[in-house]
C-alpha cells in the first residue's frame, strides 16, 4: 500500500518541497517496481504528484517501454543508499538496491524537474560520500529555565517535545523527515547533548516516546539517535558509580541498551557530551575518554549501534589571567594521545573549528591528527554565533571551505569517515527555521553531507529551484544576490580577522567587544593600546599553530604568511601591522565594518525589490528581519570601530564617524 505523504498542518511552509516541485514527475506515466516499506513511501510520493498533475503510477508491471519513469531494483550493488539514473528511448530509469536508494533517486528526479525527461542520459551512479549524515537537535523535553525548549534554537519550540513530553500528533515530524530525506539526511538525534534529568529518562522508562519519533522518521529512511548522560547508571539505575571499567556499570548499560533496541530495532545509537561544560564524564574516575566511549560502544555493538562521542572538551573555568592555557588547544591535547584506542563503532565527533562555531575559525587540527579513529565533523546550522536566524547568513561557502581543507592529500570531507553532523536550525515555527532564508542552510548542509565537494552555489541553485519552482529569473538572481555573500558580510561587521567571540555573554547575540575578555570561558582577544589578537605561534605563543602538520603549521606560524582572515586568531599584532591585502589592521577594521553595514543596506533594498515575486507572508517576515539585521549590524560597526579607535587612538583614514 502506498504510504500517504504527510499532510502539513495549516499555515506551515512546504519549504523545498512545495507541490509544484513535483510537476515534472506528477505529469508522467511512472512504473514502480520492488517491495519494502520505503518503496511504499516512494509510491505514495509519486501517487500524490500524479493526483496533482494528472499522471499515472503503476506497480510491478513489466517495463514495456510505455513509461516515462521507471523506479525499481538496479542491476548492481550500490549499497542501501546508492542509485543510478539513466534515460534511453523516452524512459528515465532510476535503479537502486535498497528502498532508501530508490527514495533518494526519486528526489533526485524531482530536483532535475523537466530536465530528467529530456533527450538521452548516460547512466550515472549516485552514492553518498558519507554514510552518516546527521542532525543533532539540542531540544529539551522540558523547558529549561535558562536555555528554553531548544538550546540555541531560533525557530520557536521543539518539533518533537512539548509540555514535557513527546508531541501527540507527529504528522509534522513525518513532514520534517520528508524534507530531510529530500536533501539526503539519514539520522537525527532527538534531544539536547546537555542531558538534564527529564531528558535522561528517555533512555529508560520514557523510551516509548523516542520509539514514536523513530516510527515517524523511519518511512523517510531516517534513523533515530539519542543523547545520553554519562551519569545515567547513577541517575537512573541507582548505582553508586558511573566508572566505565566497573562491571556493574557496564552491565547496566548493556541492559539499558538491550531494552532500547527492543523498543527501536533500528535505533542508531548514542550521542555523548562528557567532561564538557560541567557534564559528567570518565575523568571523575581517572579514566580516559576512550574508556568511556568504548563502554558505550560495547553495549551498542551487538545491535549494530554507534556511539558519537563529542571531542568538545576544554576547561570552561579558566583564569583569564593565565596566558598559558589556550582553549583552542584543548581537543587536540585531550584526544590525540587516544588515537587508535577507540572501538570500531565509536565515532569521535569533532567541531569543525577549535573553538565554538565562530563566523571564522581555522579548521580543527584534531581532524587531521586521528588517522586510526573514526571521526565525524560537526557543523552548526543553528546560527548561534552567526546572527541567530535574524540575520541572513548562508553558511554554504564556509562549510565548503572546511570540507575542502586538506590535511596531507585528504580533504576534511574524506577524513570524516564517521559522518557529517550538524546542530539543526529547525523548530515549530511555520517557516521551520525562523528566518525563511535560513532554510537554505539546512538544505545546503544535507547536500554537502551527501557530496562534500559539491559547489555550494550549485546547491543554492537547487534550493532556489525547488523552493520557488515557478520563480522568474529575477527572483533567482535576487536570492543569489542576498545569499551568496551573506556569510562574508556578516564576518565583516562582527569580530575582525578571525579573533572571534566579542558577542554578548550568555545568549551570544549582538556585540560586546569585551563581553568574554575577563571571563572563565577561554575566549580572549587581548586588545590593548598597541595591538590585538592571540599569539598562538609555537615560537612565542601558546603553541597551537604547532598542532598542525606542514604546510599549515608553517603558514600559520608567521604573521607574514598567515592568511589575513585568521591573522588575529594566530597572532597578536600592532594596529599598524600591514595585512597581505596592503591595509593596516586598524584600517581593515574600520573599512570592513562600514562595508558590512553598507552590504546589509543593499541586501535589504534588493529584498524589498522582490516584493510581488514571493508570497507576502514570506516577504514580510524576511523584510522585518532585515530591519533587525541592519540595526544590529550598525551596533556592531559602531561598537567595534569606536572600541578600537579609543584603544588605538588611530583615526579612520577616511574620516568616517566613530564614537
Ligand atoms: C549544547 C556551545 C553552546 C552550548 C552548547 C555547547 C556544545 O558552548 O553555547 O549551548 O551546548 O556549545 O556544543 O555542547
Protein model, in words:
With 659 residues, the protein is α/β, with parallel strands linked by helices. The protein folds into three domains: 19-126, Chitobiase/beta-hexosaminidase domain 2-like (Chitobiase, domain 2); 133-467, Alpha-Beta Barrel (TIM Barrel), CATH 3.20.20; 491-534 and 572-648, Alpha-d-glucuronidase, C-terminal Domain (Alpha-Beta Complex). It contains 20 helices and 22 strands. Helix 2 (37-53) packs parallel to helix 3. The longest helix has 33 residues, at 616-648. It starts with 22 loop residues before the first helix and ends in an 11-residue tail after the last helix. The site of 4-O-methyl-alpha-D-glucopyranuronic acid has 9 residues, from loops. 4-O-methyl-alpha-D-glucopyranuronic acid (GCV) binds at residues 138, 151-152, 193-194, 273, 312, 356, 384.
Shape category? globular
Look at the helices and sheets and give the structural class. Answer: alpha/beta
Strand content: 5-15%
Count of helices? Answer: 20
Bound molecules: 4-O-methyl-alpha-D-glucopyranuronic acid
Domain Glycosyl hydrolase family 67 catalytic: 122-407
Keywords: Hydrolase
Protein name: Xylan alpha-(1->2)-glucuronosidase
Pfam family, one: Glyco_hydro_67C
Amino acid at each position: 500500500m502506498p504510504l500517504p505523504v504527510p499532510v502539513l498542518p495549516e499555515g506551515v511552509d512546504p519549504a523545498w518541497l512545495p507541490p509544484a516541485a513535483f510537476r515534472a514527475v506528477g505529469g508522467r506515466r511512472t512504473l514502480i517496481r520492488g517491495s519494502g516499506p520505503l518503496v511504499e513511501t516512494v509510491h505514495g510520493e509519486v501517487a500524490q504528484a500524479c493526483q496533482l498533475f494528472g499522471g499515472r503510477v503503476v506497480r510491478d508491471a513489466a517495463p514495456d517501454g510505455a513509461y516515462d519513469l521507471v523506479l525499481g531494483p538496479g542491476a548492481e550493488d550500490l549499497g542501501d543508499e546508492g542509485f543510478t539514473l539513466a534515460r534511453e528511448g523516452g524512459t528515465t530509469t532510476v535503479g537502486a538496491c535498497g528502498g532508501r536508494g530508490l527514495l533518494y533517486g526519486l528526489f533526485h528526479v524531482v530536483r532535475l524537474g523537466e530536465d530528467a525527461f529530456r533527450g538521452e542520459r548516460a547512466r550515472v551512479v549516485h552514492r553518498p560520500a558519507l554514510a552518516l549524515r546527521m542532525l543533532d537537535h539540542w531540544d529539551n523535553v522540558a523547558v529549561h529555565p535558562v536555555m528554553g525548549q531548544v538550546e540555541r534554537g531560533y525557530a520557536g519550540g521543539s518539533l518533537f517535545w512539548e509540555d514535557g513530553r513527546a508531541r501527540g500528533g507527529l504528522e509534522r515530524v513525518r513532514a520534517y523527515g520528508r524534507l530531510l530525506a529530500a536533501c539526503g539526511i539519514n539520522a537525527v538525534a532527538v534531544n539536547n547533548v546537555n542531558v538534564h534529568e527529564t531528558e535522561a529518562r528517555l533512555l529508560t522508562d520514557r523510551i516509548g516516546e523516542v520509539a514514536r519519533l523513530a516510527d515517524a522518521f523511519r518511512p523517510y529512511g531516517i534513523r533515530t539517535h539519542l543523547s545520553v548522560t554519562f551519569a545515567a547508571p547513577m541517575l537512573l539505575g541507582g548505582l553508586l558509580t558511573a566508572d566505565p571499567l566497573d562491571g556493574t556499570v557496564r552491565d547496566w548499560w548493556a541492559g539499558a541498551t538491550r531494552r532500547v533496541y527492543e523498543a527501536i530495532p533500528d535505533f542508531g545509537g548514542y550521542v555523548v557530551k562528557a567532561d564538557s561544560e560541567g557534564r559528567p564524564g570518565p575523568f571523575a574516575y581517572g579514566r580516559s575518554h576512550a574508556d568511556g566511549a568504548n563502554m558505550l560502544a560495547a553495549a551498542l555493538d551487538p545491535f549494530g549501534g554507534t556511539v558519537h562521542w563529542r571531542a568538545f572538551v576544554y576547561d570552561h573555568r579558566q583564569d583569564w589571567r593565565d596566558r598559558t592555557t589556550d582553549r583552542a588547544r584543548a581537543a587536540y591535547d585531550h584526544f590525540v594521545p587516544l588515537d587508535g584506542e577507540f572501538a570500531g563503532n565509536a565515532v569521535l565527533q569533532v567541531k569543525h573549528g577549535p573553538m565554538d562555531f565562530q563566523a571564522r575559525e581555522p579548521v580543527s587540527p584534531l581532524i587531521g591528527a586521528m588517522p586510526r579513529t573514526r571521526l565525524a565533523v560537526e557543523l552548526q546550522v543553528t546560527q548561534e554565533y552567526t546572527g541567530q536566524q535574524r540575520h541572513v547568513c548562508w553558511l554554504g561557502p564556509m562549510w565548503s571551505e572546511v570540507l575542502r581543507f586538506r590535511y596531507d592529500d585528504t580533504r576534511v570531507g574524506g577524513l570524516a569517515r564517521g559522518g557529517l553532523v550538524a546542530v539543526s536550525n529547525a523548530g515549530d515555527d511555520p517557516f521551520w527555521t525562523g528566518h525563511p532564508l535560513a532554510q537554505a542552510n539546512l538544505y545546503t548542509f544535507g547536500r554537502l553531507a551527501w557530496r562534500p565537494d559539491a559547489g555550494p552555489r550549485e546547491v543554492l541553485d537547487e534550493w532556489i529551484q525547488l523552493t520557488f519552482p515557478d520563480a522568474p529569473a529575477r527572483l533567482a538572481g535576487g536570492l543569489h544576490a542576498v545569499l551568496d555573500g551573506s556569510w562574508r558580510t556578516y564576518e565583516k561587521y562582527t569580530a575582525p580577522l578571525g579573533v572571534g567571540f566579542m558577542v554578548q555573554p550568555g545568549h551570544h547575540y549582538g556585540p560586546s567587544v569585551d563581553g568574554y575578555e575577563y571571563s572563565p570561558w577561554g575566549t580572549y582577544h587581548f586588545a590593548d593600546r598597541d595591538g590585538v589578537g592571540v599569539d598562538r605561534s609555537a615560537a612565542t605563543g601558546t603553541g597551537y599553530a604547532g598542532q598542525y602538520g606542514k604546510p599549515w603549521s608553517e603558514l600559520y606560524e608567521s604573521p607574514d604568511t598567515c592568511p589575513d582572515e585568521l591573522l588575529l586568531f594566530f597572532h597578536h599584532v600592532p594596529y599598524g601591522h600591514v595585512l597581505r591585502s596592503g591595509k593596516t589592521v586598524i584600517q581593515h577594521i574600520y573599512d570592513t565594518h562600514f562595508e558590512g553595514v553598507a552590504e546589509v543596506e543593499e541586501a535589504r533594498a534588493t529584498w524589498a525589490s522582490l516584493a510581488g515575486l514571493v508570497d507576502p507572508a514570506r516577504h514580510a517576515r524576511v523584510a522585518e528581519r532585515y530591519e533587525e539585521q541592519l540595526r544590529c549590524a550598525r551596533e556592531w560597526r559602531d561598537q567595534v570601530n569606536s572600541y578600537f579607535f579609543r584603544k588605538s587612538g588611530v583615526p579612520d583614514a577616511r574620516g568616517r564617524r566613530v564614537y
